[in-house]
Amino acid sequence: MGILNSKIILAKGIKMDREYVNVLSYNSTQLLALLNSNEHYVNSSITFAFIGGKNTNIISCPFSYNECLMSNYIAFQNPNYSNKWFFAFITNVIYKSDGMTQIEFEIDAWSTWFEDWIKKPCYVLREHVNDDTIGANTVKENLDIGDVIEEDKFEDLSYTYDYWVIVESSWQPSDNSSSGGEQFSGIGIYNKTISGTQMFAFKYDTDTSDNRIPSLLDLALFLFRTNSDGHINDVNNIYIVPNSAVNQTKLELHTTQAGTNTFSFYRLQWDTDILGFDTSIPKVTSFNGLSIKNNKCFCYPYNYLFVTNNSGNNNIFKYEDFYNQNNCVFKNQLAICNGVSGRIVPYNHKGKEWDYDESLPLAKYPTCSWSSDAYINWLSANAVNNITQIVNIGEKIATSFMGGGVSSNGQQNPSNISSGLSTGFSIANSIGNFIGGFYSASLLPNIQGNQPTGDIAWASNSNKFTFRKMRVKDENIKIIDDYFSRFGYQINRIKEPNIIGRQNFNYVEIGSSEEIGNGEVPTNFMNTINNACRKGVTIWHNHENLGNFNVSNNIV
Predict the structure, then answer these.
(1) Which of 63, 155, 279, 296 could link 67 by a cystine bridge, Cβ 3.0 to 4.6 Å?
(2) Is the dihedral angle over the CA atoms 291, 293, 298, 301 positive or is it negative?
(3) Residue-wise pLDDT tens digits, 89-133
(4) 402 and 355, same structural domain?
């Protein structure tokens, strides 16, 4: 019969499962300590013959039927044959007599042989990583991201609210004189672009916060003066540019007259530089009102930057593609020309210092129209000194309608308009006095230059770059974050699997024909271990927390 010195420990409340979904990273000493703890220990005996012989998975033991029923796990050892401890799941309990109960068991291959094999490189499909730096893990996941929402928005106001009007002309009125000037013949260079004309700049004040009319009086007088000099045909282009396109250190101030009216203008000096500035967008590393555990949630497609010029050109930029640690940097480049030539270029992006391939163009700015028709010719010849009066008339028209003529609900108030005109000021009569002498001039030929190409983007103040910080909406990002917490990240490469490295558990899943390791383990048990890893196994490092996926699982 043999020596009766084989040992058995009966334990309860052991959380591992026979399907090897959840296992422990305990060695035999740690697992024996768990089984012998007050919480799990039920009974033990050392009066057994050899346990677990060939094709034998039944033990007849002197434990009570009740003790065996409350137990789900055993450990046994056959000292005469080996010092190795075997660990097993109780699969059935059969009552034999008051002093004898039969236990059927199944060897726990993972726990029994965990310290006897060594992991090796294999094709890892998923695992919890030991480096969760934002951007370190970007392998595509086959997850439904659902809808996206805007976390935040930034608009670069460098392109709005502050403008210049550029006049390209070959004629420059002389300073401090109401007639004469200088004919330009040659080339000019502006932002490295060669031009056959000179450029003159006029500040375009669009501040209407106090109901002011945008100030373009200097521009109007410049054109009247040019026309009265007989050189209106030398005006080639008139267009609007943002303030950031003008190098103000290259502006040369001139002051002159149109009749008795003094006005100023700037001439652009040669400029061989390309103007530019940086737009820096902080990366999104947290979501408002949400606690995110896995940093892959802050990568594309769960979190990204959408950039648009608000006129049909846009692109998605991934935060992780910018290798500046904290910000996404875009280089703004501008050149003065008809409609303005501008773009933003991602900087330090996808391994490139300047990623021109993914630049976005600035939408075109308006091109203005001008004319020297019969009426303007007549004004230039006969009434140029009255230009201020014309502008004042326009301002009074606007004041009447903006000040007293519009009610709080946006409707015109006729009584207010009437009161605004009842002080002896008559718009109709004032303008009529100018038109009265026009008939004889109406037969003069018209001269027109260019046509307006202003668009709604500029008129609505949206001709700029908008940076929208987009992410998956709350409900779905939480689902995705929980999925990563449970199953780690997609890996899809050959490496040594991470079976430790996290505070409480590591998930590992290898290819269907891969082997996680090898060692002094019987083939059938090693195959069980490999199969567990092929379907995906969660390796717990603390039995007390086993199964609690809400527990903290930081990298250690």
Answers:
(1) 63
(2) negative
(3) 999 999 988 878 999 999 999 999 999 999 999 999 999 999 999
(4) no
